[in-house]
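As noted in the main text, all predictions were made from sequence alone. Below is one such record, for NADPH:quinone reductase-like Zn-dependent oxidoreductase.
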Amino acid sequence: MTTGTITARTVVFHELGDPDVLTIENRELRAPGPREVRIRVEALGLNRAEALFRAGTYYYLPTLPDSRLGYESSGVIEEIGKDVTEFTVGQNVSTGPNIEMSAAGVYAERVVLPVESVVPRPEGLDAVTGAATWLTYSTAYGGMVETGGLHPGDHVLITAASSGVGIAALQTAARIGAIPIAVTRTGEKRQHLLDNGAAHVLASSETDVVAETRRITGGAGAQLIFDAVGGPGLAELSTAATHNGTIVVYGWLDQRPMAMPMNWPLRILGYANMELSATAAGRRRLDHWIASGIRDGVLRPHVGAVFEGLDSIREAHRLMESSTHTGKIVVKL
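Prediction:
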């Protein structure tokens, strides 16, 4: 049992806004209660959701003032509470599932979390790579396979393909034998996307995505569209789907209202990662999918940029909002 007061430098914000609203404050850390662990954080993995949350445009609003931030981190367990049997002191872990960011955001030197918010870090991953793994691959697998029903031989059109989830989606689709078609804004990242599993790369500023998808699929269209953008462009994008195809929307980079496509029959599903990870069985499937993919080398987490120290969090958020990076942004503590 740890004695004495423990404090941790913690990122908080007291008002909505751009990255400048983020501040770093010392916070006292309580001891882990029953079914809780305390983690010394080694690295943070940034997600677009956190920029939306900070700005007040996420699907739930922060509790202000004094909101915390962040889903994904990797670190080492320092202390366990009563009745914790899943983890041991000194174990390498990651965080991500079942976190309400206002109260339990992980942008901090140390955090106390329930065991349902902690997963084992796959063997062989260092802290930086570990922070770039769980949310991206769980979203890709959960959205495309569990929700979208992707099968070997299916064509899947993946928007925002150079993002962290986009790269994970390309690798995930390739691993199960599907045919991933990557959509990116320009052709600059073409080779990188091909290297990460894309069978085809479409630059939306240079080509007609729907027409090219139809050509690639012999006129049939893609069985699945895995979309991070939404907005009014969803209606046109949907015409790249096959008869009785499926669209899984997992993000809303375009904040404008979505238009309802009319090329029925068509399934349109919204994917929330927390639904699958809310159950022990769901977390087990996700953990085994990720760990086995890391072991066989097909799932290769891509870190696009590493920032040093918690004080760099504003700069890291600015890069994330610029969308000029490829893969995951990580802040190393």
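Residues 175 and 298 are 7 Å apart (CA to CA). The mean pLDDT is 94. These features were considered when defining construct boundaries for the mutagenesis experiments described in Section 2.9.
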